[in-house]
What we know:
Layout: E1 2-4, H1 5-9, H2 18-27, E2 31-37, E3 43-56, E4 59-68, E5 75-79, E6 89-99, E7 102-103, E8 107-109, E9 112-114, E10 117-118, H3 146-149, E11 155-160, H4 171-182, E12 204-206, E13 214-221, H5 231-238, H6 247-259, E14 263-267, E15 275-279, E16 285-287, E17 293-295, E18 301-304, E19 309-312, E20 316-317, E21 329-336, H7 339-342, H8 345-348, H9 354-361, H10 368-382, E22 386-387, E23 391-394, E24 403-405, H11 407-414, H12 420-429, E25 433-437, E26 440-444, H13 455-466, H14 492-501, E27 505-506, E28 512-513, H15 515-521, E29 527-528, E30 539-540, H16 545-556, E31 563-570, E32 573-575, E33 578-580, E34 583-590, H17 607-616, E35 624-628, E36 634-644, E37 647-655, H18 657-662, E38 670-675, E39 696-705, H19 710-720, E40 725-734, E41 743-752, H20 761-779, E42 782-783
Parallel strand pairs: 12-15, 27-31
Antiparallel strand pairs: 1-11, 2-11, 3-4, 3-6, 4-5, 6-7, 6-10, 8-9, 13-21, 13-22, 13-23, 14-21, 15-18, 16-17, 18-19, 19-20, 24-26, 25-26, 28-30, 29-30, 31-34, 32-33, 34-38, 35-36, 36-37, 37-38, 39-41, 39-42, 40-41
Helix pairs in contact: 5-6, 6-10, 19-20
Amino acid sequence: MKFSENWLRRFVNAPLSSDELAHVLTMAGLEVEALEAAAPPFTGVVVAEVKSVDSHPNADRLKLCQVDVGEEAPLQIVCGAPNVAAGMRVPCARVGATLPGMTIREAKIRGVASCGMLCSARDLGLAEESEGLLVLPADAPVGADLRAYLELDDRIFTLKLTPNRADCLSVVGVAREVAAMTASPLDLPQPAPVPARITDALTITVAAPEACPLYCGRVIRGVNPAARTPQWMVRRLARSGLRAIHPLVDITNYVLLERGQPMHAFDCRKLSGGLTVRLAAAGERLVLLNGQDVSLAPDMLVIADAARPVALAGIMGGAETAVDETTVDVFLEAAFFDPASILGRARRLGLATDSAYRFERGVDFGATAACLEYATQLVLQICGGMPGPVTQVQGRLRARVPIRLRPERARRVLGVEVADEAMGALLKRLGLGVQQDAQGLLVTPPSYRFDLAIEEDLIEEIVRLYGYENLPARRPHTAAAMLPLPETRRDEHALREHLARRDYHEVVTYSFVDAQWENDLGRGAAVPVKNPIAAQMGVMRTTLWGGLLDCLRFNVNRRQTRVRLFELGRTFHAVEAGFEQPQRLGGIAFGPADPEQWGVVSRPVDFFDVKGDVESLFAAGEDLAFRRAEHPALHPGRCAEIFHRGRPIGWVGSLHPRWVQKYELPAAPVLFELLLAPLMTVPLPHYLEVSKFPPVRRDLAVIVDETVEAGALLAACRQAAPKQVTEIAIFDLYQGKGIDSGKKSLAFRVLMQDTRKTLTDPEVDAVIARLTQVLADRFGARLRQ
């Protein structure tokens, strides 16, 4: 929400500076995101009239101008602007004036004296580009200070409003807040009804009264098609981020910004018969003002004439009935549409309009008719014409239900003593109806405060006006007891620190994701979001990989060659009983396996590097297995499903080549994802006696089919090993000369140690024979000679 400070002070002129006003608004919950000057500083620039233009004697492209700046004698100024002409009024920087980046001095240009400078918008810092001099209105007062004439000392506020404060999506709404916060008088003139001068009217029918409880409109005939939007309105629109288009359109935009009431103007000659507010029929289409041809859904509210839909209600008008430079008869409309009937429709069509933004949050239906009268006054003032009578169709509007406020509870919640009368006075400053009885206060919200519904809302309003900074800061006093911390429970922060030590950086991404990500990377149907905040955030994620890949692309596009990321968050899955939201840990690794250094040969990270990272998350000796499997997001030959104590808990693997190409990555990253629950429980540590006797090592090399998984052999050996075996690990894999085709050689390191004696050769040989027999029986392994 952007607006001009001068515009705001027209309604409430609080005795505060701009910065103080910004502080008051922010403390009231209307965060001032930006406060900027309407124009850069410059001095010595006045309104001037070009009296004559002659050719420069020594230059073809320069002109010699006589310029009236409000003094007895005109100034001679050399100008090279292509649009300079006698009779026009333009800004003139006099000798001594300071402009952005320059100071004006008397000079000779090609041998001719020049006593000043005629200025373009770019010269004054009002625009980045300009093709000629800034042309001022013909009635601009010659000699007047330009800053004062164009109100360039104005400042522009940008508010970052929360969704519940739709009442502040207008200058009048902000003025109400300032008046309440500063106890300043609010000067809000109410437009008087404009008497009808003709009897012309359109027939209005509301076929969807629940969606449109109030619809007002009137015909105005004979408007001047050559009329131009006045400069004061153009300035205010521009400082609110809108450009002037057409006087009738500008008036509706102006009322929207000032009063918060969306409006629309139809060209009467383009309408067929009366207007009907109804739901769209299946298959109906409408070309909108922006040229977009949309297919209407049955739950979309439209305004239609006798032939077809002419506007998407509360969102955007149609192009076929829009006003233009030939319009002489206009139908002005102002309505209240129920927020539920507008919510989400614009986003579904890929639109974002000021009207939809306001109607979705709630518009003041108590001011709808008055805004139509105000717009009529502006049309007659700027464009002329003869107004007809107001046609109004009203159904059942939302009743403003009184809210019970218990002062004693409010004092308990706030922690300060505020008298009942003071609470009532604060609420009255906000325009709320307040009645006091034996049970406390009965407060009726006005029609523009859709956010006030329960007692807590009123308590919030009281503390806003009382001042958050006036609340005492009291330290809490409580008896603190140390909670038990089981040794078998792992803290999430410890998990994060562990991954950080392994060179991973944590990211936090949205749970709302692009449906295409889920189609590419997920294994189940994604849960759709009923009212997505953006088209690319239409479903709930079933995997963390989409967000991680997006972060990876962001970094790779900014020349990051080595990326390690992880995220700890929830995924969302539809089940028969409703929804499941398990917490998961996901990670991605890309680029070299080690940071660049002289002592290590660079190589790309691979499956086994990330598999090692995953294994490090579990305690030593945990029942963890990696089994070959297929996942739609992962490379078929570089993918494994992870099992913990026999239960599947996640996946690890390289990204599938088709997704590497689609997401425009220079190489395939390695990803992993695990259920968080198995990681949060660790075995209870137990004491083992440290042996005083030397360990014995034996190497066991066996030949098996190449399809046999090394992890399965390792698990079988560990299960069959007696207590004297302290470690079994694979240290070699060989296929090639000396090994039959379809076979592979795996070598195991077996460490044995006893705490009571030195092991003898027969005891060691018996252990090796036992392990060899287990591998032979279960996997057909034979010793490698």
